[in-house]
From TrEMBL:
Residues 658-669 have a biased composition (Basic residues). SUPFAM superfamilies: FYVE/PHD zinc finger. This is PHD-type domain-containing protein. One of its GO terms (biological process) is positive regulation of DNA-templated transcription. Signal peptide: none annotated. Gene3D superfamilies: Zinc/RING finger domain, C3HC4 (zinc finger) (3.30.40.10). It comes from Oryzias javanicus (Javanese ricefish). Residues 603-695 are annotated as: Disordered. The lineage of its organism: Eukaryota, Metazoa, Chordata, Craniata, Vertebrata. Residues 647-657, 670-680 have a biased composition (Basic and acidic residues). Its main location: nucleus.
Length: 757
């Protein structure tokens, strides 16, 4: 009875539970596991058969099916996902939102609970939220791309069919394009034409939308305007003739309002800036009446060539440079020799390369002087350094100071060079190691000595002028650097340069050369007035230290006479040297040299040293002096001069002299005596007849009158203001030159000089 009682109670409990499930009476639903337990209990305990068990089995089976379907929905086995642009693919087997909602409703209607139900309800709630967000973003005119992308990312977790996804993807592409357009518009410095074209191409493929169409219209308009201005500005820059700066500035003012990166417009802006700077520099170049430097003008013109703008001062600057080039060509034709290795600046400047080339300086004194010059002045040791210094000088005064320093160096080194070359020929010198001339070989045979550097040259190595006469100086190729034009041909060059009003190194050098020439002429006048030339030869007597020598079995002698430096005072020697250094031809230079030559060295005989007589001439013996003239020849020359003077009484030249004296009244006796007392040289030859000497010399106004005799008495009258008469031989003129050229004496070339009485 006890067991039956227990079975009855168990059946009642089971039956009550099944009835609650079937009839869905309880507020709290059983779980699916409890339904399976009740079905199993009813079958194992063999409860009486009833319809409730069958209903329980049916409910349990249905709940199992729903649970499996819910699990499948949660596992996402019925669709394929992808993230291209966000969202997922639309599968025709995918559960729709309404189906999901119905399925959730079916879960609620089940008499039991399944564990997938909360998850499906949450899915339905998230789908509802997605729907609300989609409607809000799709209704927005310009939704945020990030919000759209986040919403599409949310859709990846929703395993249901979402009809908003295609619209959301379209709006995302539109939003991204609009954002790119906005970012490009916010940075106009980088919004170039290519960027605008690329954005327009991208916008064409987008789905139609009002915001996209508006942005596309603005972008297309900007592109059109930009392309038009780029083409217009390019035409302005390439136009020939160039446009004025005002026209270009007006174009720039219109372009400044275009919010885009336009390369041609930026280039035009840079061109206008450069043009303004150029105009400012061109204006500042001539402010205050300053004379511009050629280098600055050339730089400005060179810069202007790269500026496609019509610059008003450019034509004037180009004309100035053209005038300077023409002036340079004219100056080069005036000064430079044919095929010369020297430039115009090298010729006009004081020499900075004294002793260069083949002349090897071994004098210790020369090195000491050179070092002293380097320490005491600016280091200007080459023409390039001088040219740079002259170009960088602020004004002409500083340029003159620079050239004055170079002049001091020139004189100091040249004097040392002369001492060095003179020392080569001393008897104590080691003759076996003696190298002279441009060929740097030992002296042999006919030699000629440069009057400036005192170096010896073989007559076969250098060109000797055929008309070189006694009393004319010979300069070697290194010392004869130019044509040495007359001063009256040089002064117009300076005047034309002053009219051009442009400073250039050659112009400063020419001005310094003329000033140096004028100073030298004053010094010559002062030397004549002070009687410095009359004492030459007395204080410094001539020493015959240069004898013909035998070297390696051969002998040499000097073909052309030159001044013995031992017979010159330092002042006279420096005066004569500077006269040779001047790159202009002055009558004073030739007159001074002729006077010193006739005073310090006897004139040679009129016999030709060439031919058979030259081979037997005793000048080649060691008994002859440096100039190759023996005492016998000197006496013969004096007798011939006397004879020629006597024979010339009836000659044409004598008639000319007498006729000339009739044109001009004679000087007073006191004036004649004063001139003789101050500047007349002491005669080494026999004095001519008193009457002829008094008559000839009384009319010559040269302070260093050589008292010519006979055929040498040819006259020339100054074409200046003084109208004084001079012996042609005293002023260094030949009869041909006197007929062809005008002669102006020293006093007339320097009006501010007063001849001392």
């Amino acid at each position: 009875m006890e067991s039956v009682k227990l079975r009855s109670e168990s059946y009642k409990e089971w039956l009550s539970s099944v009835q609650d499930i079937v009839e869905n009476k309880g507020t709290k639903k059983k779980g699916l596991e409890e339904l399976h337990s009740l079905v199993e209990q009813g079958e194992t305990k063999a409860f009486p058969k009833s319809s409730l068990l069958d209903q329980l089995r049916s409910i349990t089976t249905e709940a199992d099916k729903v649970a499996v379907m819910a699990q499948q929905l949660l596992n996402g086995k019925r669709q394929t996902r992808y993230r291209s642009g966000g969202g997922k693919s639309q599968n025709h087997n995918e559960l729709t939102v309404e189906e999901l909602r119905s399925f959730v409703q079916q879960l609620d209607n089940l008499p039991c609970n399944i564990r997938q139900a909360p998850l499906l309800k949450d899915l339905l709630a998230r789908v509802d939220d997605f729907h609300k967000c989609s409607e809000r973003l799709l209704s927005d005119e310009s939704p945020s791309p990030q919000e759209l992308q986040d919403l599409l990312d949310v859709s990846l977790g929703l395993d249901v069919e979402l009809p908003q996804l295609p619209l959301l993807r379209e709006r995302l592409e539109q939003a991204r394009w609009l954002e790119a357009v906005q970012q490009a518009s916010n940075r106009p410095d980088s919004l170039c034409l290519d960027t605008m074209r690329r954005l327009i191409d991208q916008g064409v493929g987008l789905a139609p939308h009002s915001s996209v169409e508006k942005a596309m219209a603005r972008l297309q308009e900007l592109l059109t305007v930009s392309e038009q201005w780029e083409e217009k500005v390019l035409g302005l820059m390439e136009a020939r003739p160039c446009h004025s700066i005002d026209t270009l500035e007006a174009a720039l003012q219109e372009v400044e309002n275009i919010p885009a990166y336009l390369p041609n417009c930026l280039q035009l802006k840079d061109i206008v800036t450069k043009a303004k700077k150029w105009l400012h520099e061109a204006e500042a170049l001539q402010l205050g009446g300053r004379i511009p430097v050629l280098e600055s003008l050339s730089e400005l013109v060179l810069i202007a060539e790269g500026i496609p703008v019509r610059l008003e001062p450019l034509s004037r600057l180009e004309a100035l440079i053209s005038d300077v080039q023409n002036w340079r060509e004219s100056a080069a034709k005036t000064f430079l020799l044919k095929n010369t290795p020297f430039t115009l600046l090298e010729v006009l400047c004081p020499r900075c390369d004294v002793g260069s080339g083949n002349q090897k300086l071994k004098s210790k004194k020369l090195k000491e002087i050179s070092q002293l010059v380097k320490k005491s002045s600016t280091k200007l040791e080459s023409v390039c350094e001088i040219e740079r210094a002259l170009s960088e000088s602020k004004d002409s005064a500083s340029a003159m100071n620079t050239l004055a320093e170079v002049q001091q160096r020139e004189m100091a080194i040249l004097l040392a060079l002369r001492d060095s070359n003179e020392a080569k020929l001393l008897p104590a010198e080691n003759c076996s190691a003696l190298n002279v001339c441009a060929c740097q070989k030992a002296p042999l045979g006919d030699m000629v000595q440069c009057e400036l550097c005192r170096d010896l040259f073989h007559c076969g190595c250098v060109a000797m002028p055929a008309d070189l006469e006694f009393g004319q100086a010979w300069l070697c190729p290194l010392c004869k650097r130019s044509r040495k034009p007359p001063l009256d041909k040089v002064l117009p060059l300076l005047a034309s340069l002053q009219r051009i009003r442009v400073r250039l190194p050659e112009g400063d050098a020419l001005r310094f050369l003329i000033e140096r020439t004028v100073r030298w002429q004053h010094r010559v006048q002062q030397a004549c007035t002070a009687g410095l030339l009359s004492i030459t030869g007395n204080t410094w007597p001539r020493k015959a230290t240069y004898l013909s020598q035998e070297i390696n079995g051969g002998s040499f002698y000097i073909e052309h006479q030159s001044l013995p430096p031992q017979a010159l005072s330092p002042d006279v020697e420096e005066l004569m040297l500077e006269g040779f250094l001047l790159q202009v031809t002055l009558p004073e230079t030739e007159q001074l040299y002729r006077y010193l030559t006739y005073k310090l060295t006897p004139p040679p005989s009129h016999c030709s040293p060439s031919g058979r007589d030259a081979e037997q001439s005793p000048r080649r013996s060691p008994q002859h002096n440096k100039n190759g003239v023996s005492k016998k020849e000197s006496l013969s020359s004096q007798s011939k001069r006397t004879k020629r003077r006597k024979d010339s009484s009836d000659s044409q030249h004598s008639d000319k002299a007498k006729k000339s004296r009739k044109k001009k009244p004679k000087k007073s006796k006191e004036r004649s005596e004063d001139v003789k007392k101050v500047c007349s040289p002491e005669h080494t030859s026999s004095d001519p007849a008193p009457s002829d000497s008094e008559e000839d010399f009384s009319l010559c106004a040269a302070p260093w009158c050589r008292e010519p005799e006979g055929d040498e008495v040819n006259w020339v009258q100054c074409d200046g203001n003084c109208n004084q008469w001079f012996h042609q031989v005293c002023v260094g003129l030949s009869a041909e030159r006197a007929e062809k050229e005008d002669y102006i004496c020293i006093s007339c070339t320097q009006p501010d000089y007063e001849r001392g009485d």
